[in-house]
Write a structure and sequence with these properties.
Blueprint: H1 19-34, E1 37-45, H2 47-55, H3 62-76, E2 82-85, E3 88-91, E4 97-99, E5 101-102, E6 108-109, E7 112-113, H4 121-136, E8 150-154, E9 173-177, E10 181-187, E11 191-205, H5 211-226, H6 230-235
Parallel strand pairs: 4-8, 8-9
Antiparallel strand pairs: 1-11, 2-3, 4-7, 5-6, 9-11, 10-11
Helix pairs in contact: 3-4, 3-5
InterPro entries: 2-oxoacid_DH_actylTfrase, 2-oxoacid_DH_E2_comp, CAT-like_dom_sf
Protein name: 2-oxo acid dehydrogenase subunit E2
Keywords: Acyltransferase, Transferase
């Protein structure tokens, strides 16, 4: 016969976590125990991205432009697209982009877009839309979530300022994009104007590279986004 105890915190209900929630929890704990996490954030103006969107008949979603900027920047900073393996660094030649998808607050799944570096903005938009839809309809297989080399997480219109994401093992880094909002910004160092601004935050494995390398990578991503236009984005 088990003893009956009174919880000093008051009445409560114990709910069994879903399978997705348990797998997400296990992955997060394992990631933090595996990699020495460090994080860095930059503010990015998305005015040029919005202008490019308006000029495109396809109207790609903003995460497609961020994915485009990231995949191009990874070519110049290959350590970000790598994994730590037993005292060595495995650097990947292709960018297999993981896209974090929220499963109605039950947990996360990360389908992978293989060869993302070969896609333009419209191609990335199509693939992100496809894998996100398949994820939410629970039509993904194990193979769809294998082989990622870098992960992008977007919180869209959630209203958040910045998020420090947990690395998707065994990758070296993950980038989170939070909500784009209209904010006052200083232009040309002399005048204040209203711009479309969002924070990009990258968590990275400090064994693989250091803060200066992370800062340079983020600066390159920001440069791509703030100078995006329809021609550049579509041409890759």
């Amino acid at each position: 016969m088990s003893a009956v105890t009174t919880d000093p915190r008051g009445p409560s209900t114990v709910r069994r976590a879903s399978g997705i929630r348990r797998r997400t929890a296990e992955h997060m704990v394992r990631s933090l125990a595996t990699s020495p996490h460090a994080a860095m954030a930059v503010e990015v103006r998305f005015d040029a991205v919005e202008a490019a969107r308006q000029a495109s008949a396809a109207r790609p979603a903003v995460p497609a432009y961020t994915a485009w900027a990231v995949t191009r920047a990874l070519a110049d900073f290959p350590l970000v697209n790598s994994s730590w393996e037993d005292g060595s660094i495995r650097v990947f030649e292709h960018v297999n982009l993981g896209v974090a998808v929220d499963m109605s607050h039950e947990g996360l799944v990360v389908p992978v877009i293989r060869g993302a570096h070969e896609l333009d903005v419209e191609g990335l938009h199509e693939r992100i839309t496809e894998v996100t839809g398949r994820a939410r309809s629970r039509a993904l297989g194990v193979a769809d979530m294998a082989g990622g080399t870098f992960t992008l997480s977007s919180l869209g219109r959630s209203g958040t300022l910045f998020t420090i994401p947990v690395i998707n093992q065994p990758q070296a880094a993950i980038l989170s994009m939070d909500t784009i909002a209209r904010r006052p910004v200083v232009a040309d160092g002399t005048r204040v104007e209203v711009g479309l601004v969002a924070v990009l935050t990258m968590s990275f494995d400090h064994r693989v590279f250091d803060g200066a390398y992370a800062a340079a990578f983020l600066a390159r991503v920001r440069e791509r986004l703030e100078n995006a236009d329809g021609k550049v984005a579509a041409g890759g």
